[in-house]
Amino acid sequence: MEKTSHEWSPESLFAKAQKYAEVMFEHQDTNWQFGLWSAFVLEMLIRSAVAKTSPVLLADLKEWHNLLFALGKPIKKSKFVAKSASITSLITRVGDLAEDFTTDHANFCVSHVERRNSEVHSGNMPFENFGSASWLPNFFTVCDVLAREVDESLESLFGTEIARQAREEIDALKDENAQAVKGTIAAHKAMWEKKTAEEQDQAHKQANTVALRHYGHRVSCPVCQSTGLLLGKAVGEVKREVDDGGIIEKQVMRPESFQCVACGLKINGYSKLIASGLGDTYTATSHYDAIEYFEVDIDEHIRGMMEDDNNEY
């Protein structure tokens, strides 16, 4: 009979992280469940990385029988339920064990787990309206470090396509040149503040008129708070829904450029948009009636019905 892996083994914990990752990416990153499941993925990776050295290091040390459980030894204590250390303690432990796991990584893990705790144990919904650009690059960076710690990879954790997106996010986070965009924003803000109130009001109105939804995603400009437009590229699969009005297609878009006609600010490049606070993905929604979607030629369809005789005697 094949031996079953210990539930605290690094292999079992990594396999669970893979399962959670599958559920995570069933949701668009604008959905609160995407953030919640990411926190579950992160916890399993932390536990797996600690267990790689020894499952014993997962044990809650307040009860020594937890050590026996981690060693796979029989437990003679009645009504015993194994308990592992808290995730915050394990973040500290993985920081001591994993060479590439930095203080910044630990701080991200703590804050992300705190959001998870608030989601699960209170009436708050911290992942609701929580833009992924503020945490997803850090999440992927930590996942990369922890996966390598257990001799795995982003590819084995997420699959090839998502791993490719993850590496793009990681590269964007590392792009130090992108930080220069903050100087660009400051310069435009200085010029904006030199305008009179009347000039600013006129520019606001012009921006609201020009920045139409069908040209791009409308967001507030970081310089003048006028309405600007984000343009992006599609990521992931198109989601389709059918309702009484026809077919609805939803596509997650990752921003690539931003323009505001009110103050003249232009930003090109995902890494610069992240540094500007404009890196959140958005959803492009298209509506089609069934005839348009399936490219049905009504005239031809009617002619075909007239030519067919289904009433032969």
UniProtKB/TrEMBL annotation:
Q: Which domain of life is it from?
A: Bacteria
Q: What is this protein called?
A: DUF4145 domain-containing protein
